[in-house]
Structure formats: C-alpha cells, structure tokens
Amino acid sequence: MLALTGCKPSAPPPQIFKTQTDALEKAKGVEQQLQQAQDRAKAAEEDQQK
C-alpha cells in the first residue's frame, strides 16, 4: 500500500494551524500598536513635566 501512495503526486499539506497563526500575527500587531501608544503617552508626560 505504501508503494502505491509514493507514486501519487502529493497534495499540498492542509493548513491546520492557519487560524491560530493568523490570530497570533494579529495579536503581535495589536501589541506593537499598544506599545507605540504607551511610548507616545510617556513622551507626552515627560514633555509636560519639563
């Protein structure tokens, strides 16, 4: 049976974890936006203290 399956062209592997990896990438983007907003708020606070 294995010999027969070796002769067939292989199909592309299913993207089982696509939804999870998409969610992870989205979360990384949100994290970056939050970090930038925090940096801007900190800079504005420091400017007010001067």
Describe the structure.
By secondary structure, this protein is mainly α. The chain contains 2 helices and no strands. It has helices spanning 2-7, 18-49. The mean pLDDT is 83.
Question: Which tags fit this structure?
Answer:
50 residues; mainly alpha; 0% strand
List the helices and strands and how they pair.
Elements: H1 2-7, H2 18-49
Summarize the structure.
The protein has 50 residues and is mainly α.
The helical percent reads over 70%
Overall mean pLDDT stands at: 83
Multimeric status of the protein: single chain
The general outline is: rod-shaped
Order of helices and strands: HH
Largest sheet: none
Structural class by secondary-structure content: mainly alpha
**Beta strands, count:** 0
